[in-house]
Amino acid sequence: MPRAIHDQQNLPAREPGAPETPKYERLRKYFVEEVLAGRLKPGDMLPTEQQLADTYAIARSTVRQALGALQRDGLIQRIQGKGTFIHEDARVRSRPDLDVFALVLPETQSAFYPSLQRSFDEAAGRVHNQILVCQSNNNLDRQGNVILQLIDKEVAGVAIVPVTAPPTPVYQIRQLQKAEIPVVFCHRRVEGVRAPLLAIPFREVGRLAGRALVERGHRRVAFFAPHLSESAVGYLEGLLDVLPPGGVTAEHRIIFGPESVPDPEVHEPELLAALSAVVNHPDRPTAIFASFDSAAELIYLLLLRLGLRIPEEISLVGFGGTVRSSPTLHRITSVTVDETEIGRRAVELLDRMRRHELPLDSNETFVMPIRLSDGQTLGPAPRGARSSR
Question: Does residue 154 share a domain with residue 261?
Fold first, then answer.
């Protein structure tokens, strides 16, 4: 039998001063409060749509909207031919502190990360979620501490750009999944963990940069990366796929930073020394590919300090987001990925997993499109530096 609900009664009144709320939302909120208070228990059967409509003197379509929202939130389940029941996990799923999505990033201030945060926040707002943004500094221990705090806060889901040096271990992410917290990987996945991935095609980034350089006659290219990571290896492999043999020599593969995210002010002397060695080499490269726009910006300024004309004497290509947030970035030619789309898609996937429309162990990969941006730092190879393949 349906759980007893009083005969004719009014919908719960809105709080004084609160904005007008649609009737279906007030009915939905009423059932959530009943679940949290323990007055509706797992397995309880609800009255029919018509009975609820009669009880609250509202249209049956309004009841249907409220029940549809409860079903999407995983608080009720409808069984054909039997009725509508309170889900066994309804009380856990209805807790207010689950309305927070977390975004875990190696850094938050440079390159495409600020735009990624904004789009993640905007998309979360559209599904009525708050967000937490956590910075790991590309440090494994810090990331582990962040994950433990997110588990303690019982967040609704986590989108994470995993640390790369050293690689993120499986157990860190599995702690989240054991707590039934949805996880979405951004840029790269943690091998051995099944979760959706919004992937940057690292090798194709290098190929696209390489093709743009080759089309303009470049045959010798220097590769700069803050540290050796999965992404850096992919970029370099893509360049080598396209450039002729010897196009990126071992001495022109420059890893200029430590394992953590580089601070340009701290590591500028090391980068300047490496850059000086490259541009003063007898067989100087005619172009540089930098694996991240923040590095490309600094390289651009250092090349000017060294007295080189860009792109007349040396070209520069970076990698980053479609939002070019500074005057220097507007000048730099880069392979770009739409970071705002990554933020939007991450929220969409977390929301689907929270609503049980997508399994927590879904291993789908969504490859994000890339393109070459317009800029002023890519030109033809200087005369005398060109050679046939």
Answer: no
Whether residue 325 is predicted with pLDDT greater than 80 in this model: the reply is no
Burial class (CB in 10 A: 0-12, 13-18, 19+), 258: middle
Q: Residue 356's closest CA among 60, 189, 186, 156?
A: 156
Could you list the residue range(s) of the whole structural domain that residue 158 is in?
96-200+339-369
- CATH number, domain at 164? 3.40.50.2300
Dihedral angle sign, alpha carbons of residues 206, 207, 211, 212: negative
365 pairs with which residues across the strands? Answer: 197
**Contact 50/96 with Cβ under 8 angstroms?**
no
Calpha distance 27→63 (Å, rounded): 8
User: Taking a C-beta distance cutoff of 8 angstroms, is the pair 279, 306 a contact?
Assistant: yes
Local confidence band at 38 (pLDDT 50, 70, 90 cut-offs): confident
72 in any annotated domain? yes
* Number of C-beta neighbours around residue 369 at 10 A: 10
How distant, in Å, are the alpha carbons of 43, 115, 286, 349 from that of 1?
11, 53, 80, 37
Q: Model's pTM, two decimal places?
A: 0.74
Q: Residue 3 has what pLDDT?
A: 45
Q: Positive or negative CA dihedral for 301, 302, 303, 309?
A: positive
User: Do the Cβ atoms of 239 and 287 come closer than 8 Å?
Assistant: no
Is beta strand 83-86 parallel, antiparallel or unpaired with respect to 76-79? antiparallel
Torsion angle in degrees (nearest 10) through CA of 292, 294, 295, 301: 140
270-to-274, 277, 289, 299 alpha-carbon distances in Å: 6, 11, 17, 12
Asked if residues 181 and 155 have their Cβ atoms less than 8 Å apart, the reply is yes
Number of neighbours of residue 249 by Cβ within 10 angstroms: 14
The residue type found at 31 is: F
Distance CA 336, CA 320 (A): 5
